[in-house]
Amino acid sequence: MYLSSLLKKNRHCVEVFIQNSSDIKNLINGIDEYRPDIIGFYCTTGIYPWVLYTASFLKNKFPKIKIILGGPHPTFFPEIIKESSVDIICRGEAELALLELLERIDKDRDYTDIENLWIKKDGKIFANDVRPLLENLDSLPFPDRDLYIKRYPFLNKSQKVFMAGRGCPFSCSFCFNARFRDLYKGKGCYVRLRSVENLISEIEYVKDNYKLNTVYIQDDTFILNKKWTLEFLKEYKKKIDLPFICLIRADYLMRRSLVF
User: Fold this and answer.
1) Rounded distance, CA 95 to CA 102, Å?
2) What is the DSSP letter of 12?
3) HSE, side-chain direction, 13 A CA sphere, residue 170
4) Do 135 and 188 contact (CB within 8 A), yes or no?
5) Alpha helices of the chain — where are they, by DSSP H?
6) 2-127 is classed CATH 3.40.50.280
7) Closest C-alpha to 129, from 78, 190, 189, 178
8) Is the model's pTM score more than 0.85?
9) DSSP letters of 90-156?
10) In this structure, is the dihedral angle defined by the CA atoms of residues 63, 66, 71 and 75, taken in order, positive or negative?
C-alpha cells in the first residue's frame, strides 16, 4: 500500500490482483485486461515456490512484461534473480527504488544501476548496493488502502493496520532484523519513527473515511521510545479514543523504555 500511494502520487498506475485459490485463470484475465508494464511479487521464503511457478506462467503468457520480486526472500537470497522468469529483484526498502525504476522506464533510460535493485539484462546480472535508509518516514504518503478495498471489498475489516516506524534494535535469533541491519550498515539510522502528528493524522483519516473499530499498530516493538510513546498516547486518547493492539517486549514493561 505504501508502494502504491507513492507511485500514484507520481502519476503512475497501480493495481493489485489476488489469485483465487489454485485457479490462475482469474489472475490471467485480470492482467490481460490491465496490461501492466511490470508485475511485482512480494516474496517470503515460505511462498517463493508459488511465486516462481506463477511468475513463470505469467512470463510465458506475457513475455514482454517485466517481473520484479521484492520482500524478505529476494533480500536475503538475491540469487533468485537467476531464475528465468525473474527480471529484477529489490533488496530492502522498495519505495524509492521502484519509483526510480518506473521513472527511468517511462523515459526509456537505462536502469541497470539503480540502488536496491539487481537487474538481469541481456544475460548479465547487475547487482547494485542498497541506498541509504529512508530517514524521514513522514515524507511518504499514507498507505493506499483503496488499492485492496475497491477490488476486494471483503478485505474492508473493522480492524486496520498501521505502522509507527521501521526497524528494531534487537537481535532475536528467530528474526531477520540483525541480518537486515547488517545489509544497511553505514546506510543511516536503522530504527526510525514517524512523528506523532503524522501517525495520528493517518489514523484520523482512516477513522473518518473507512470502517474502523480497532487500531492494530504492527511495529515489532511499539514502546521503544518512552517520550514518543507517552506523547502518542496523549494525542491518541484525545483524537482517536478507540481500542488498539500493539506488539511489545515483556522485559520492557519491567524497565525504562529505550530512547534511541
Assistant:
1) 11
2) -
3) 14
4) yes
5) 2-9, 25-34, 48-61, 72-76, 95-106, 146-149, 177-183, 196-209, 226-239
6) yes
7) 78
8) yes
9) E-S--HHHHHHHHHHHHTT---TT-TTEEEEETTEEEEPPPPPP---GGGSPPP-THHHHTT-GGG-
10) positive
- CA atoms of 98 and 6, how far apart (whole Å): 10
Q: How far apart are CA 41 and CA 52, in angstroms?
A: 10
CA distance 52 to 107: 29
Report pLDDT for 144.
98
The three cell numbers locating residue 118: 539487481
Distance CA 225, CA 122 (A): 48
Express each pLDDT in 154-165 by its tens digit: 999 999 999 999
Domain map (residue ranges) of the chain: 2-127, 137-253
Q: Quick check: helix, strand or coil at residue 23?
A: strand
- Please give the backbone phi and psi of residue 153, each rounded to the nearest 5 degrees, phi first: -60, -25
Q: Does 124 have pLDDT greater than 80?
A: yes
Q: Residue 251: its pLDDT value, please?
A: 82
Whose cell is 520482500? That residue is 71
Within 10 Å of residue 164's Cβ, how many Cβ atoms? 23
- Residue 197: closest CA among 248, 142, 155: 142
**What are the tens digits of pLDDT across the range 24-49?**
888 899 899 999 999 999 999 999 99
